[in-house]
Amino acid sequence: MQRIIIALLSGLIFGAGLVISEMVNPVKVQDFLDLFGNWDPSLAFVMGGAVAVTLVSSRFIMKRKAPLFAERFYMAVKTSVDKRLFLGASLFGIGWGLSGYCPGPGILSAMINPTEAMVFLPALLVGGWIGQRFSA
Amino acid sequence: MLEAFPTQALLGGVLIGISAALLLAFNGRIAGISGILYNLLFNPLSSSERNWRMAFLIGLIAGGYLMLPVEFELRQGYSPILLIISGLAVGIGTRIGNGCTSGHGVCGIGLMAGRSIAATLTFMATGIITVTVLRHFIG
């Protein structure tokens, strides 16, 4: 139960952060990626703010043997930088640029811009399912 | 809001960082949205593995909802073809690359994971190239 409450709280803060920061505005995301055009640097502060917190906090958290409410840390199994990683990340970046949506803002778009979400979200799920086939 | 300094962007970013720190410190989990979503949808999970992921996604939606309405102008009439190709690419890419902006960009870089740094540099680069081509060569 403790873990569920933490997950819920973590999700709440994350969702609030995505809206407050305007990461959920795909036009602003595309403006941020438009480095060689009319560049809007403000979303660099989202990444910067988030990474500043995780860089510092992770150092303290990972000094512990285990998290507070679980028996161990569930870290990524893979650690190697391989072709699949580059292929996946490349495709993701292309998709991100084409619409301005990454998965979190994509999910929230269902409430914010349902017309786009109706098209984007099913495609995202189909894509995830296809990716899963190639991962298995 | 001051236009010169992106206060909201910074505040939102700090909140996202706190959210990730909380999930790691208490539950030992990575706040990676694509991973949480796909594991929930495509992998058979025990009830405890399923419940925290569902709680996170419910929280995500509720947290976003609490901050609505948004101030920005909604995009209208965007190409559905682009939205479909985008969704497919984001879905396939985040699945085979094991993460998105949150998992690699926020959590992984925080943990100084080489894979996440490589992935983030890669998707930032292809994202910039894509918008450049889309806006300045095609559009």
Write a brief structural summary.
The complex is a heterodimer of chains A (136) and B (139). With 136 residues, chain A is mostly helical.
Mean pLDDT, all residues of chain B: 94
Termini separation of chain A comes to: 31 Å
| Count of helix runs of chain A | 6
Largest interface: A-B, 112 and 107 residues
What sort of overall outline of chain B do the alpha carbons produce when their principal axes are compared?
Answer: globular
Question: How many individual β-strands of chain B?
Answer: 0
Low-pLDDT ranges of chain A: none
Largest sheet of chain A: none
The general outline of chain A is globular
Class per helix and strand makeup of chain A: mainly alpha
Residue fraction in strands of chain A? under 5%
Secondary-structure element pattern of chain A, one letter each: HHHHHH
Instruction: Report helical residue fraction of chain A.
Output: 55-70%
**Share of β-strand residues of chain B:** under 5%
Output mean pLDDT of chain A. 95
- Computed over alpha carbons, the radius of gyration of chain A is 17 Å
Features:
heterodimer, A: 136 residues, mainly alpha, 69% helix, B: 139 residues
Write a structural description.
- The complex is a heterodimer of chains A (about 140) and B (about 140).
- Chain A has about 140 residues and is mainly α.
- In chain A, about 70% of the residues lie in helices and about 0% in strands.
- The radius of gyration of chain A is 17 Å and the shape is globular.
- Chain A starts with a helix and ends with a helix.
- The model of chain A has no long low-confidence stretch (mean pLDDT about 95).
- Chain B has about 140 residues and is mainly α.
- The longest helix of chain B is centred in the last third of the chain and has 25 residues, at about 115-139.
- The chains are: A mainly alpha (about 140), B mainly alpha (about 140).
- At the A-B interface, helix 1, helix 2, helix 3, helix 4 and helix 5 of A face helix 1, helix 2, helix 3, helix 4 and helix 5 of B.
